[in-house]
Specification:
The strands form 2 sheets. Strands 5-4-3-6-7-9-8 form a 7-stranded mixed β-sheet, with helices on both faces. It has a two-stranded antiparallel ribbon with strand order 1-2. It is of the alpha/beta class. Helix 1 crosses helix 2, helix 5 runs parallel beside helix 6 and helix 6 packs parallel to helix 7. Helix content is 38%, strand content 20%. Helix 6 links the parallel strand 3 and strand 4. The protein is built from 10 helices and 9 strands.
Length: 275
């Protein structure tokens, strides 16, 4: 049997096993596993883990996000496709030509990826706009270690701590875009999530409290102090929770708009500082 025939047979067999386990994109996943893992024993182990519900991205060691390959360690929140909407809105708010926008071209735009997880959002923004001063922060040490690789490649800094406590005082009042993908799943809804998320991602990266908006309240309460005049806060939320997130930001003094992408199945609320 040739190597090609063996590969085809392996691909076919793995695809069928993954499809039987409920993987919607079974053939694509099988191809990725075969490309990432070598040797029959290692391939078999990887397939068994996937069949058991282990996240594909944790098996591969990376996740595709906004055209980037984001390094991902076991136990770290997997960046979702819908979060690309946060990146799109940030890019729209960051001028490519600071002089045209009446800004000091000698001072780089400060961007913060708060609750950064793997640092996917910050890395994606920095990959599109050069010269940013990029900071990312998370409370989870495993996520911070992961983010330091992804954000560090883009010249950014990663800090560990609880929300704004993690950030360096030197950027207070200077942030142009504050991108936030904080936990927003209501506590009671955690049990209904796919088991690969609830069993393999840390609870603190999912649980947003009784209504899912506890972190949105905490972020909104302090964000004004950290944003520059005219700066923007971008928070991912769900379509159902968008009205609640908007009310929280409005109560904190932000001019608010909600953005929905059917293509990405994503929803964000954007709050602009009026001062």
């Amino acid at each position: 049997m040739s190597a090609t025939e063996l590969h085809v047979e392996s691909l076919s067999g793995i695809t069928e096993r993954l499809r039987s386990a409920g993987c919607v994109f079974a053939e694509e996943e099988a191809q990725l596993l075969l490309a990432a893992v070598s040797g029959p024993d290692r391939i078999a182990s990887a397939v068994e883990r996937r069949v058991a519900g282990y996240p594909l991205e944790h098996i591969l060691g990376w996740a595709e996000f906004c055209g980037l390959r984001i390094e991902l360690d076991a136990g770290v929140f997997v960046p979702r496709r819908r979060t690309g909407l946060v990146v799109n809105e940030a890019l729209a708010l960051l001028p490519a030509d600071p002089m045209r926008e009446g800004l000091d071209a000698s001072e780089p735009a400060v961007v913060v990826d708060l609750c950064c997880g793997s640092g996917a959002v910050g890395a994606a923004i920095a990959s599109r706009i050069a010269g940013l001063e990029l900071h990312a922060a998370d409370i989870d040490p495993a996520a911070v270690a992961c983010a330091r690789r992804n954000v560090g490649r883009m010249g950014g800094e990663v800090h560990r701590g609880d929300l704004f406590e993690a950030l360096p005082p030197a950027i207070k009042g200077r942030i142009r875009v504050l991108a936030v993908n904080a936990p927003y799943v209501p506590t009671a809804a955690i049990d209904s999530m796919p088991h690969e998320a609830r069993d393999h991602e840390p609870l603190w990266s999912l649980d947003g409290g009784a209504d899912g908006l506890d972190f949105h309240r905490r972020v909104a309460a302090e964000a004004n102090e950290w944003l520059r005049p005219g700066g923007n806060l971008i928070i991912e939320t769900s379509e159902r929770q968008a009205a609640g997130t908007s009310m929280i930001l409005e109560s904190a003094g932000f001019a608010v708009r909600t953005v929905r992408s059917e293509e990405l199945d994503g929803t964000v609320v954007v709050g602009r500082v009026g001062r």
